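Morning F.,

Quick status update on the modeling queue. The single chain you submitted on Monday has been processed. Sequence for confirmation:
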Amino acid sequence: MTRRILVIGAGEAGRDIARALRASPEYEREVVAFLDDDTSLVGTSIDGVAVVGVSTDVAGVARRERVDEIIVAIPSAPGSAARRVLSLARRVRVPVRIVPGLRDIIKGSVHLDQVRDVAPEDLLGRQTVDLIEGPIRAAVAGKQVLVTGAGGSIGSELCRLLTGFGPAKLYLLGRGENSLFEIEEELRDAFGFEETQIVLGDIRDRDRLRHLAATVRPDVVLHAAAHKHVPLMEMYPEEAVMVNVVGTSNVLAFARDVGASRFVMLSTDKAVLPRNVMGATKRLAEFLVQSAALESKLPFTAVRFGNVLGSRGSVVPIFQRQLRRGGPLTVTHRDATRYFMTIKEAAMLVIQAMAEGQGGEVFVLDMGEAINIYELAQDLIAFAGFAKDDEVEIIETGLRPGEKLQERYLADTEPTVASPHPQILVARPNVPDGFDPVDVVESLRALAQACDRDGIRRRLIELIPDHEAQAGTSQ
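Structure tokens below.
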């Protein structure tokens, strides 16, 4: 039976879709109506199909026209508009598909095989990031580059992107032998990049890195290895200290030992007004990078992320797994919001910061508006094709130890300036007066080795002037 299609967007993309479906009866789909927010089009007819209203009319039109599927065909719309239309469309409880953004459409017209299911990144409410490639190529081409945490979600994406800029060699440093093996195989088989070397090692082991510096001498170090899981780091603060603080100190020392000209560390929005151990240790890691930049006068920088869509342990893959089981979906709080970016955006931001950094900056992606997690769960349920609001339950579980109701990616005391990239902000947070990197690292190392968890928490509060000491309360 022919499925009845409502197309939101009566521009060229929507018209291409309607014509392609009419010319391809094997798809068994027919466009029965258009919606468009250009009111001058409402009441007109396009190739025999009426434009019957604007996007806010979607629910009534879908019922009246007995629509089986909605296609959102507004590739030129800004991300916020696309999210608004998707939010309207999901209320109809029929499958929703989307035409990708203009930069993803290679040819001048839209083809049926370009129409796809709604992906989590479509729900960000902003345009995704494009690279300014010239400075990156200048910083990477012909250079040796080392990536720590190279087997992780972002580390492996960094490796994929770097292959396109002509590095002389990529060193893949990490502890997970299987994930390192897999990304090296992928770089060779899928990207045709042969100049790789796995470096199996632990950044917590300073002696191992000293030995490594005698044989591996990268020009650029991208430091992605970290512990990032907030509740687990509340349980095991000694691990957060050893990886995020001691490990970062070790990698910085390694970069200085080998004479690296550039260094970028991946940080987190949880380092802003930190409440939890993970955020506090990453804030100290930022201080360590800034101190190293001041001492060396080299472009050592940090990059702050929000939550990364699709990374291991992030909320979207958890929701998707829960949906495959038929629910319920679990959210911590109905009012919880988070800033999101895609894995690719995260990697692109690191590479752009590496190329643009002068030393001591903290680069931040302008991530637009924070996304309500409860609404995100509702969106994913609807786009999965569930027909009723109560078909998949959403359960509030309560904020977990160390979690905030809302995150911020900049503090009020961190003024920003523009960078050469229009979507990237640059902050220069002040390192606390009297901050002594050696004393900080050694005092925390001793507490971690003694597994003095209360002592670690007290020390973190002492070291970070704007630490939110009352962990676990909402704001």
